[in-house]
Specification:
A hairpin with a 6-residue loop joins strand 2 and strand 3. The chain has 1 helix and 16 strands. The chain is elongated and about 110 Å long. By secondary structure, the protein is an alpha+beta fold. It folds into 2 domains: 99 residues, no CATH class; 103 residues, Immunoglobulin-like.
Length: 247
């Protein structure tokens, strides 16, 4: 009799364990699925917030910047900002991959830059330039979005742009101009320079209106960090007035 009770007890315990394991397996699977969906939604929300800020900066024009605070709950397997990772074609899309799921968000203009792939909280800049939106914190920066001169005929003026190397190593820079107007001499000093880590320097714009007629003249200057694919195109406007005769 005692043997029969023992067998029945073991049988009941075994069935109970099987049921508990089954319930745990189902519950664990559902929890894992819910957690994956939650992570996917969080990543998609982060991409959407970047695109919203990018569109906002783009609508304001060249030089506009927006700070985006985002949280990545998981590591990303793939990040492609502004290009198709399979063809290399330029796009207006941020494409990422998490747990074999591709997520994306598309902006109103061309995108360029980088995104972190490691889980964490980040503050990222989105910056509107001539070629679209740059996403990410640059290793260098400039302090001017545009330059404006108001001059009379046969006058001169200068303006300085601060260039900052925010990297932990030295960086080389090139400055160039696209400004060719009769009667206006436009020079940059220096046209090439190096900045040590965490330092800054100036590029000086010199304008002479030797024989320019009254009017508004426009062009651009470029400042490029060599080897880093970081470029700025800064609009320059020179307005020449008639002096006292205009009043």
């Amino acid at each position: 009799m005692n043997g029969q009770v023992s067998v029945e007890f073991i049988f009941v315990v075994a069935v109970s364990l099987i049921l508990l394991i089954s319930i745990y397996t189902v519950a664990f699977g559902q929890l894992t699925s819910l957690n994956r969906v939650s992570n996917i939604n969080a990543v998609q929300s982060a991409l959407d917030s970047i695109v919203i800020a990018s569109n906002d900066a783009y609508s304001q024009g060249v030089g506009a910047r927006k700070m985006v605070t985002l949280t990545l709950p998981v590591n990303l397997d793939l990040v492609a900002v502004g290009y198709n990772p399979f063809t290399g074609a330029r796009t207006k899309t941020i494409l990422v991959r998490y747990n074999n799921t591709y997520l994306y968000a598309t902006a109103n203009t061309w995108l360029n830059g980088t995104l972190p792939q490691i889980a964490g909280r980040y503050d990222l800049w989105v910056t509107c330039g001539q070629q679209g939106i740059y996403i990410g914190n640059r290793s260098s920066d400039v302090d001017r979005e545009s330059v404006y001169f108001l001059l009379s005929p046969s006058a001169s003026s200068s303006s300085a742009i601060l260039v900052k190397n925010q990297d932990t190593v030295s960086r080389n820079f090139l400055a160039g101009k696209n400004f060719s107007k009769p009667g206006i001499t436009f020079t940059l000093t220096p046209e090439s320079f190096a900045l040590t880590a965490d330092s800054s320097g100036y590029v000086t714009l010199n304008v002479v209106t030797s024989s320019a007629g009254t009017g508004i003249y426009s062009g651009t200057i470029s400042i490029n960090q060599t080897g880093g694919n970081i470029n700025w195109t800064i609009p320059v406007t020179v307005e020449v007035t008639g002096g006292e005769d205009d009043d």
